[in-house]
Write a structure and sequence with these properties.
CATH architecture: Alpha-Beta Complex
Structural class: alpha/beta
Number of domains: 1
Number of helices: 10
Order of helices and strands: EHEHEHEEHEEHEEHHHEEHEH
Largest sheet: 7 strands, mixed
Distance between the termini: 31 Å
Helix content: 25-40%
Strand content: 15-25%
Number of strands: 12
Amino acid sequence: MLILNLQFWSGDSAQAMALARLIADIEPQFRSDVQFVFSARFDAKHDKPTVDYVSKKFKVFCHTSTRRGTGWPKGPNSLFVDSYQFCIEATRSGKIKGDAILFIEADCVPLHMRWLDMLIEEYKSCGKMVLGAWLEVGDCGTRHINGNCIIHKDFWIKNRRILAPSSGGWDADCSGILMKNGAPSRLIWSDYHLGTDRNPWRGCEYLFSEKLYRDPANPLFGVALKPVWMHGPKDMRGIECVREKFFK
């Protein structure tokens, strides 16, 4: 079973709730094999109408982080660690059922109606504890597996450093252990800062076009990829594009 762990703070909660509703709308019926966790930072509140809406398609749990980290990188790091620990304890107690966790930030979008089934199948077949967008220096400037990835609930036992990132973003800071125990995903894509001044929005067609890694050191270099899960859109336009393609 897969756990969807949507992490959000006060500044991106509106986009996160829109993403949660989109994920729910894609599923034609209730998914007993997938559970949904709303993980709010200490400064965010759970939106009950959205929680109720998503509960029609998934068993839902709400968690609020007690860590007080803000800014970069303490804010994202503290939220990741706290939400991961919540999932660990909830699965150990039997409150939540699931072997792996997809960590979701608000700036993600699903790109296929069967995205969940496809990701679950790829994770089961990869033979690793981590599955995600494998990024080399030439791809994004830092060698790591992007944080919007699937991680086994027991990964921390083998690599406790993941619970204590020190210098930068937790995924880059823990890149060594993540990549050593990870597999490059053909279905998960990350495009940093998409929709910002550093990487302007490129339109709806870009989301659904084939993707190519730039660094020859990347295991998937030269492979035309059709991702079903993408991290990058910094505003609502990504969600709007997906809704237009799927439902209009």
